[in-house]
Specification:
homodimer; 199 residues; alpha/beta; Helicase, Ruva Protein, domain 3; Dna Topoisomerase Vi A Subunit, Chain: A, domain 2; 2 domains; 4-stranded parallel beta sheet; two-stranded antiparallel sheet
Chain lengths: 199, 199
C-alpha cells in the first residue's frame, strides 16, 4: 500500500524493536521523516556503531567496546565485592537502584542444560579462577528468583565456598509498597518464614 | 552509569522515537545487542536510506524517493477522484481502511497563518493548477475535523468550485461501535442534525 518502498522497508525494520508492532512502527517512521530526520540519522549511526563494535568485557563479561569495561577498568570500585547477575539488564537495574560500589560478573543466562547452557557457557571457569585469586571476599548472588535462577544460585554458592569466598543472596520478601492481599503465596510464605526482629 | 559509552549513546539516540522513554530505550538496546544484532544493523541501514533519500512526490507531495510516488506514477488509480489530506499518516489510514481507488494530494499541514502556514506552504497553487486541468471531477476533502482543518476544508471547497470541480467532505457522525452516552456533544449534535432516512 505504501507510496514508497524505502518507507515500507523502514516500517518493517522498526518492528525488530521489542514492543513495537505495525502501527507504532508506522508512527515512528512518519515522525522521523516529518520532524526529526537529523536525529533519525544519528540513531542510524548509533545503531551501526553499537551493533558492530560492542563486545564483552574480558573480566566481567558485561557489554563493552573496550577489552575492559569502565567498571572493571576503573579503580574506584571495591574489588572485594563481586555481584553475579544473569544479564546486563539486571546489572543496569542494580546500578540505578542501589548504591553498590563493588564489581560485577555477568552470566548471560542461567544454568539450563536443556537449552545447552552449562557452566562453560556461563563463564563459570573464569569466575572460579577469579574467586581463587583471593581478592574477592563476598560473592553477591543476584540471579533471578526463578527455578533455574535458584539452581544457578546454588551452584554459584558452592563455587564461592570452594574458593573460600562468602556467598550471599538478595533478600526475598514482600515488595515495598505491595499489599499482602496481592502478594503471591510463595513470596508471602518466604517473607513470613524469614521474618526479622524489629529493633 | 553505563559500562559502555556506545551503549549509553544508543540508548539516548533511541529516545528520538515517539513514545520511547529511558526505560524502553534501554530495553530495546539490550534486546538488539543480546539477540538481534543482524536486524539492528538492517534497521540502521533502513533508517539511513530513508532519512537521506525519501523526498516528496512532485505531483501529490506524499513521501517518495522517486520524482513521482507509486500511486501517482501507476495507471491503475482513478484520476477523476482526488482526495486531499493533511499528512501522509492520514493517507496511509485511508489506504488501509477504505477501498478508495483515486489519487491523493498531501498538504503537509493545515491553513494556520499564526504558524506561518498559508496557501503557498500547503502547495495550494499546485493543487489549483491540477484542478484546472479538467481531469479531476470530485475533490474529496479529508482534512481533520478540527477548527483549522475545517477552515482549510472551506478554502479547498472554494478552490474546487473555482476550478469547476465538485467538492465533498468526509461524513461526520457517531463512530461505529461507539455508545451515544460517551460521544461528545458536538459530534452528537452533528449526527442528529445530519440524520438520514432508513430505506
Amino acid at each position: 500500500m505504501s507510496s514508497s518502498p524505502l518507507l515500507a522497508n523502514l516500517i518493517e525494520a522498526l518492528r525488530c524493536l521489542p514492543g513495537v508492532g505495525g502501527k507504532s512502527a508506522q508512527r515512528m517512521a512518519f515522525h522521523l521523516l516529518e520532524r526529526d530526520r537529523e536525529r533519525g540519522l544519528k540513531l542510524a549511526d548509533a545503531l551501526r556503531e553499537a551493533m558492530q563494535r560492542i563486545g564483552h568485557c574480558g573480566r566481567c563479561r558485561n557489554f563493552s567496546e573496550e577489552p575492559l569495561c569502565t567498571i572493571c577498568a576503573g579503580s574506584s570500585r571495591d574489588r572485594q565485592l563481586l555481584c553475579v547477575v544473569e544479564s546486563p539488564v539486571d546489572l543496569a537495574a542494580i546500578e540505578q537502584a542501589t548504591g553498590y560500589r563493588g564489581q560485577y560478573f555477568v552470566l548471560h543466562g542461567r544454568l539450563s542444560p536443556l537449552d545447552g547452557l552449562g557452566p562453560e557457557e556461563l563463564g563459570l571457569p573464569q569466575l572460579a579462577q577469579r574467586l581463587g585469586e583471593g581478592e574477592v571476599e563476598e560473592l553477591i548472588i543476584a540471579t533471578n528468583p526463578t527455578v533455574e535462577g535458584e539452581a544457578t544460585a546454588h551452584y554459584l554458592a558452592q563455587l564461592a565456598r570452594a574458593g573460600g569466598v562468602r556467598p550471599t543472596r538478595l533478600a526475598h520478601g514482600v515488595p515495598l509498597g505491595g499489599e499482602l492481599e496481592f502478594v503471591d503465596r510463595g513470596t508471602l510464605a518466604h517473607a513470613f518464614g524469614g521474618r526479622q526482629l524489629l529493633e
